[in-house]
Amino acid sequence: MELSNFDEVIGKVDSLDIKTKHFSWIYNTDNQRDSVSIPLIAHNLNNLKQCLVVVSDQHEDTIIEKLVAMDIDVEKHISSDQLKFMRPEKFLFVDGEIDENSVLERFQLVIDNAIDQGWRGILIVNDSSHLLGDVDISRWLSIESRLDQKCTENPCTLLCLFDDRQVSGSLVAAVIKIHPAVGIGDDIVRNPFYVGPFTKQDYPA
Q1: What is the pTM of this model?
Q2: Domain enclosing residue 72, as ranges
Q3: What is the pLDDT of residue 48?
Q4: Does 108 fall in a domain?
């Protein structure tokens, strides 16, 4: 999978002109991660969209600190339920196991709740990298594929963050096919390897 194949720029991180509803960002430093996710969260807050951020405790503290440094009134957004945080363990797992149907139900519920509360849509930022070391790739592909379909059907943008220091290369190579756009450097580029939502017979054994 050569980077030279990713040559159709469809957005810029600094302008937040991102013409996709589902994209991945593979990072190998915390600064790379934050340079994408935090401006995107701030942009969606300012545009009256709810933001659900599914990250670890430490990552949440960093996000809040950097939003405050951008003069974002974090306390106001949290109290109004516009900015919400959830742990990946709660969002993805049931009794210590990833439960696909529960993930999909929660995903649809948070979208429906955002619309019912009057927000223009929802941004979901998910970084579950620390939990994906031993994940079954076919199960994760199934979840990502079904989430991709839900993004096309709902007023939702989904940013999937993957820490290259924690997730396997085989997982990254597999899930990138489920993301219509990927982040490379300062660009959001169309993914030429995107295959669209999978059907069950497409999942690897």
Answers
A1: 0.85
A2: 8-194
A3: 95
A4: yes
